[in-house]
Amino acid sequence: MENQKKSKERRNYEPDFKAEILKMLVSGKKVSEISDTFGIAENLLYRWKTLSTMKTKAKTNESEGGSKLVAENAKLRAEIERLKTDREILKKALGLLSSSD
Asked: What pLDDT sits at residue 57?
């Protein structure tokens, strides 16, 4: 007889289903309860939770970085306007000094 392995077919879960499970985890429901109820391995539930946390942190860091960029952009624009004003003043002063000779 041939020695054949029975391979388990990988189950795919819909994103909406995963989101509902994650809501249950966040609300304080025990992983073991969810695992037993839905027939999902506990380690998979922990992985989903970890990945969700990592995505949330990444989004938070992006938004914080974005607000820092906006603030820096505003600061640089103000500096540009100040330098333009200084340049215009220096041009007028140079014109007055050169014409008085």
From this structure: 77
Q: State pLDDT tens for residues 42-76.
A: 999 999 999 888 888 777 777 777 788 888 999 99
In a domain, 3, yes or no: no
pLDDT tier for residue 101 given thresholds of 50, 70 and 90: low
Contact predicate 65/73, CB 8 Å: no
What is the rounded distance in angstroms from the CA atom of residue 73 to the CA atom of residue 79?
A: 10
Query: CA-CA distance, 98 to 90, in Å (whole number)?
Result: 12
The range of the structural domain enclosing residue 80 comes to 15-99
Please, how many CA atoms are within 13 Å of residue 80, restricted to the half-sphere of its CB? 6
Alpha-carbon gap, residue 90 to 54, rounded angstroms: 53
Residue 67 buriedness (CB in 10 A; 0-12 / 13-18 / 19+): exposed
User: Would residue 8 count as lying in a domain?
Assistant: no
Any domain includes 53: yes
Per the structure, the count of domains in the chain is 1
